[in-house]
Amino acid sequence: MLRSGQPIQRSAALVVPLAILVGGAVGCGGSAGAGQRARSSKTTAAGQVAKSGATSAKPASQDATARVDASSDAALAANPSLIAPGAPSDAEIRREIKEARKAGIALPSGDTAASFQNSASGSAVAARGAVPGGAEIPGAIWNPRFQPIADWIVPVLQWAHMHGWTGTVTSGYRTYAEQALLNAAGRFSAPAGYSNHEFTSYPGGAVDVTNPSQLLSVLTGYPGPQKLVGGVLGPVDPEHFSATGR
Q1: Three-class SS of residue 32?
Q2: Which of 99, 106, 136, 175 has the fewest CB atoms inside 10 Å of its own CB, making it the most exposed?
Q3: Has this prediction a pTM greater than 0.90?
């Protein structure tokens, strides 16, 4: 028969190692509950940082919506403060571009002044048909209406501009139909088929200009062989210049 108290001594011996093992598993001075709370706290903090980062990045992406794409109209409508006063929407711009192309207007192919100038020249050509041989549409400050002009006249006007003429060309080459319209309107003009405006080869070709008296004065010093003459028709047509003045 076992003596009383022996089982108790063995149980006490087992309790101490178990306590040490439990304490070691928990950690120095901690508890299982504290460890779980610490891990939970770290996880929650990490989640909050991630959410906070996503939230702070969102306005930056919204600020970048002012570009032509499928969603920009909706984004700008939701935040009108991003829109400059009077600025057209993407939809309005697309509609205007469609209408311009339908009308045969050549649109700029780039974002430089030259691209706009060249496209305007193309629009003038489309409106009146192909430019005839011996003529061109100079992209010069003195040709703001992008008139077709006989090739031989262009260097004369360029020289005049560089030497003090500040006027512009209001009319250059004309088709037979355009000249006939002037005749029908009752304006002083040569009959269709007989106007120098309808020709391009020297001595054919003509231009109408602004500041004609200034151009007359400047051209007195022009050194080239092909002269541009004005003032021959007097006060009835002072802006008319051609090789003969008629």
Answers
A1: helix
A2: 99
A3: no
